[in-house]
Design a protein that fits this description.
alpha/beta; 5-stranded parallel β-sheet; binds flavin-adenine dinucleotide
Length: 403
């Protein structure tokens, strides 16, 4: 792109998280030399979220910053922190900001991520937490220093990781999950049962098949909870980890097509991030991209944000996209065990459990005999070597037959 592009309106990215930052980086890497503004409503430099439920909350690291301040100067990325976008006028190509001003854009990227879901009707008490951002994790970490008992509501990835982090600090943990096992809706009950075993072996009081009825508080401070099965749990710390919803309310009047909230919500986009509005793109956790299956869905994982950033930057600049087949990947660290998934394993797939060795396991997932993915715990090499077969949609029998 020619330097004269700097005279035009800039590319504006709303959301200075992983996806927004990576998109800015990819645009520069692909040769874009024009104006580039990255808007974030938080006060911190863009930071990494995975450590928040792990090393950061345990007090093992303080800094999860993704890039130092000088990086933005060097790359001529104008980072505006504490700046929330409140609306978009796609006809005028303008973003509205919280201070009432507007910002012209040449192209706009929506990267506003997620916000934790809350349970309606719960009393507003001290000691009750959610976890998405640095401020949430700092508040949680501060209270953890004094806590002896914790209740974690929801055994999804964040709930399971927090339960593990709390146990490593010697805190008694009750983990409550309405589904029959942890992670049942993502990985299915068979693999979920192995995750349940891991937590029980570590002393977590895991209660599946029940949920939170209400919180109990004294003098504005939480002291426990009443569960849906009628039992009472004492806890001086409660974390609500029941999932998140995409941050799209600022787009309500924009005319940009959004997914049905009942189907996960998010900004609808094609297979390279193009939304329904001209020159507007969406990336990361907030974006419901079109997948090979023909469905549009959001993916809430770290690797996806970086991969989408590269694809969207190439599409915006008309550059050739990466040629390697995309095989989705995510991980979750619980205790010393790394759980990893490659491909698109789903709860409704056939599951072939080929290793079940205490804390380690390996399971292949398939649909109609065709390999869809692999999930392993403590089995990195075995998970990774499945990549080519998943990309090729190989018969699962290839992996089950001893060679
Ligand atoms: C605690 C935690 C642990 C995780 N652990 C793992 C893991 O182990 N493995 C894994 O694969 N994935 C993990 N993830 C998921 C991974 O971190 C996300 O997929 C990734 O952060 C997505 O990046 P994003 O930029 O789309 O969203 P975000 O990181 O949420 O960034 C969005 C940014 O936009 C800002 N924003 C929102 N609205 C506005 C607005 N109107 N104006 C301006 N700015 C706005 C937000 O404040 C935020 O800073 C974890 C996530 C969390 C929260």
């Amino acid at each position: 792109m020619s330097p004269s592009a700097t005279d035009a309106a800039p590319i504006v990215i709303v959301g200075a998280g992983l996806a927004g930052l990576r998109t800015a980086e990819e645009l520069r890497r692909a040769g874009y030399e024009g104006g580039l503004i990255l808007l974030g409503d938080e006060s911190r430099l863009p930071y990494d979220r995975p450590p928040l439920s792990k090393q950061f909350v345990r007090g093992e690291t303080d800094d999860t910053t993704l890039r130092p301040g000088e990086f933005f100067t060097e790359k001529q990325i104008e980072l505006r922190l504490d700046t929330a976008a409140t609306g978009v006028d796609t006809a005028a190509r303008q973003v509205r900001l919280a201070d009432g001003s507007t910002l012209d854009y040449d192209q706009l990227i929506i990267a506003t991520g997620l916000r934790p879901r809350l349970l309606p009707g719960l009393p507003d008490a001290q000691g009750v937490h959610v976890l998405r951002g640095h401020a949430d994790a700092t508040a949680l970490r501060t209270e953890l220093a004094e806590a002896t008992t914790a209740l974690v509501v929801g055994a999804g990835f964040i709930g399971c990781e927090l339960a593990a982090s709390f146990r490593s600090r010697g805190i008694a943990v009750v983990l409550v999950e309405p589904q029959p096992t942890p992670l049942a809706s993502v990985l299915g009950e068979q693999v979920g049962a192995l995750v349940a075993r891991l937590h029980r072996d570590e002393g977590v009081d895991l209660r599946c098949g029940t949920g939170l009825d209400t919180l109990l508080a004294d003098d504005g401070r939480v002291r426990g909870a009443l569960l849906a099965d009628g039992t009472e749990v004492a806890a001086d710390l409660v974390v609500i980890g029941i999932g998140s919803r995409p941050v799209t309310e600022w787009l309500t009047d924009s005319g940009i097509a959004l997914a049905d909230p009942a189907a996960g919500g998010g900004v609808l986009a094609d297979e390279v991030g193009r939304t329904s509005a001209d020159r507007v793109w969406a990336v990361g956790d907030v974006a419901a991209w079109l997948h090979d299956t023909g469905h549009r869905k959001r993916v809430e994982h770290w690797t996806n944000a970086g991969e989408q950033a590269r694809l969207v930057a190439c599409a915006m600049l008309g550059a050739a996209p990466p040629t390697a087949a995309r095989v989705p990947y995510f991980w979750s660290d619980q205790y010393e065990v790394k759980i990893q998934a490659l491909g698109t394993p789903t709860a409704t797939d056939e599951v072939h459990l080929v290793v079940d060795d205490g804390r380690k396991f390996l399971a292949y997932y398939a649909q109609d005999g065709k390999l869809t993915g692999v999930v392993g715990a403590g089995m990195t090499a075995q998970v990774m070597k499945t990549r080519a077969k998943i990309a090729a949609g190989a018969p699962v029998s290839d992996l089950l037959t001893p060679s």
